[in-house]
Design goal:
The chain has 138 residues and is of the alpha+beta class. Helices cover 49% and strands 17% of the residues. It has a 3-stranded antiparallel β-sheet, covered by helices on one side. A hairpin with a 2-residue loop joins strand 2 (37-45) and strand 3. The protein is globular, with a radius of gyration of 16 Å. The relative contact order is 0.18. The model has no long low-confidence stretch (mean pLDDT 78).
């Protein structure tokens, strides 16, 4: 439980979503059982996570997990996010009660979906007429 206590005050502040990223670049994920809902944005630079923004409505462990994932993966590769698993989280953090693991699962699912969506939007842009013109100028 120490991990969650370290981040408990994040329920009051959190990382705010980036105004410059468009709404279509924000994903939302919810847990219908407990009612937690998160909104996540990821800004990519090449194959790395440049920044992460989030908002959450729900229990404070969700804020803890989102902040942990932001600290861990900003600056890291897309592949490192997509391959990260619950077992790795548990080995890094230590003992996490089963009743709090849903917070990590929801947070990781949101991050993975945000990364996947950002990659898809980048590919969509690259194949658009505007994207092709930008590539020709470089």
């Amino acid at each position: 439980m120490e991990f969650f206590e370290d981040f408990r005050d994040l329920a009051e502040r959190g990382r705010f979503l980036q105004a410059e990223l468009k709404e279509r670049e924000t994903i939302s994920v919810s847990n219908p059982v407990c009612g937690d809902k998160i909104f996540v944005q990821v800004d990519l630079e090449g194959q790395r996570i440049k920044s992460l923004g989030y908002q959450a409505h729900g229990c404070w462990p969700v804020f803890s997990c989102l902040e942990f994932l932001g600290q861990k993966f900003v600056g890291q590769t897309i592949e490192s996010v997509l391959s990260y698993r619950m077992e790795e989280f548990l080995s890094e953090i230590g003992c996490v009660p089963a009743s709090k693991r849903h917070a990590f699962s929801l947070s990781l699912r949101g991050l993975v979906q945000a990364v996947t969506k950002s990659c898809a939007l980048r590919a969509e842009y690259a194949t658009s007429p505007v994207g092709r013109e930008d590539q020709e100028r470089v």
